[in-house]
Amino acid sequence: MANALQNVIAQSLECPVCLNTFTDPKILSCSHTYCKACLDNLLECHGNDQMLRCPVCRAETQVPNREVSKLPASQALKSLIEDMKSQHQFCTNCKSEDKPQAVAYCRDCGKYLCIPCQNAHSMWQDFISHEVLAMSEIVSGKVSVRRYRKCRKHPKEDEEWFCSDCRRFACFKCVVMEHTNEGHRVSEAAVYESSHVKSIEDLKSKSDKKRSCFQKYVDFIDEQKDHVSNVQKQCTDDIQKAFEESVQQLTKKKEILIGEVKGMSEGVEKELDEMKKSAQEHITHLTTIADVVTNKTKIPLDTDALAAHDTLCQDLQEALKQADPDYKQPIQSSRRGKSVSFKRNVGMKEEALGKIVIAVAKTIALPTKDSMDAMVSTPDCKMAVGCCTGGVEIFSADGRHQQKVFEDVKICGVGFLSDNRYVLLDCSNNITLYTLDYTKLNVMFETLSNDEGECLCLTVDGDDQIYVSYSEAEKIQVFSPAGGKATREIPCDGYIPWQITNYNDYLISESDEIRLIDKQGVVKYQFTSEDYLTAAVSLENTILIATVKHDVGLVSIDEYTNKLKHVQNLVTDYKIEKSEKRRWYTLQQYRSGEIAFCTPDRLYIFH
Questions:
Q1: What is the distance between the alpha carbons of residues 394 and 420, in angstroms, rounded to a whole number?
Q2: Is the separation of the CB atoms in 265 and 231 below 8 Å?
Q3: Given pLDDT bands bounded at 50, 70 and 90, which one contains residue 217?
Q4: Inside any domain, residue 348
Q5: Range of 43's domain?
Q6: What is the rounded distance in angstroms from the CA atom of residue 394 to the CA atom of residue 138?
Q7: What pLDDT, on a 0 to 100 scale, did the predictor assign at position 2?
Q8: Are residues 429 and 555 both part of a single domain?
Q9: Last residue of a domain, one of 87, 112, 140
């Protein structure tokens, strides 16, 4: 009888949350008691809130400064727990009243065994495979023992049944007397335990997936921070290099510039850190409550424990309802940080390293939608945009539309000779020369027909040689401004020269990659990317390459040497309005320094 009472008391000393014997028990204002560590975990699940909700009755308790240690302790429980620890477990197999102390426990038999009973147990052939635990392992907490609670109405009976409607464990006699009416769903306790464990495992799986989702979001934010940090580092490196090549008087200017980069970047990084913190708090919330709920070592047995676990399961279900992270916010924040760049003074005698710039573009909608087919800088420092629907639109460096000329010509390519005469390539493969006052000259060029090789682009070199690229024929023809037949042809082996640009003694050919080829067609250098590429020659005689991520509508512009080695980034992931009909882009630089990037619908001028 004493041993049965001891088991009942031991079961009453279990925390309803962790299902282990109370450790540092704390009392809430509703009089329910929990381990301090369990209350710390529950408080953590509610973020910065100082209100703690009881899992059993859901009453709220104020926790000043979130210090659970300052809640009142249950001294009576502490003393009782200590007294129970000092008590020995007696053999439950012996029939005598004066039972000896147990030294082992058989999981299969569900009985504590003294030394003689253990010896007899080990000799029985049917018991050899039973799992026997030493009492030292049980007392130390290394292993736990499944105990069936004794029925309070029938103390000799184990509560081996469970009523789902009453949410109670019951013995067989109670089931017969109280749980046989309609509306009572009774099952074996072991079956309920198995079902309960499975539902917990399902919750754990969903929690892991949701946690993984938010972890990917955190990783993405880290990646965006890295991009911003890399831009800051690149700017700082460029500034440092320029400084080392200058005199000591530039020290003050250097520190100012680095401070500007840091100031611009830190604001963005702070925003990303706040987004990351919010996501990590949700991960912590999911982890903490999931770990508490999914404790598989024990199953809640009494009403309080069941209520606590039901509440915690509901809390976890609510946490899982939170929407997946929105990647637009870190993308928008990081774009501001990635737009920062350092513009170094090159070839100037000013006592300055350069300046920090943020890529700012003026956007101009082309008068005719989905019309751009070519673009070139004019001799009078303007930009001419040729349209396949007819005409050349002229824009100033500040984005103002100046005029429209050659309205009756469907433009495929535009160029200028050294005497400023216009060279136009129309969509029927015809080359025509015009004077500055737009008078057509009587010069004929024998180009290929559309059946022989559809024209793509036109460029003019420093010797007034006119180059025309063909898609079907996969070659480039060279013409004299005097007209007539092509003076020679340049083969394009294995690629289509979608766009061509003159560059010193070379041509820049754009197709699936940027190729720097000599005038005989030999590829000297090439640059590859998975995204769309277009190139132009800068005022400093370097090469500008625009990389377009068409699917997401982003453009980056970088500067390269005459060997296609990277010099510096000028524009990073600038948002553009992508055309739904054509993937056709072109790049040029105004003679006043502005960079023009054109889509089929819009002209972007970067200052």
A1: 15
A2: yes
A3: very high
A4: no
A5: 1-87
A6: 88
A7: 46
A8: yes
A9: 87
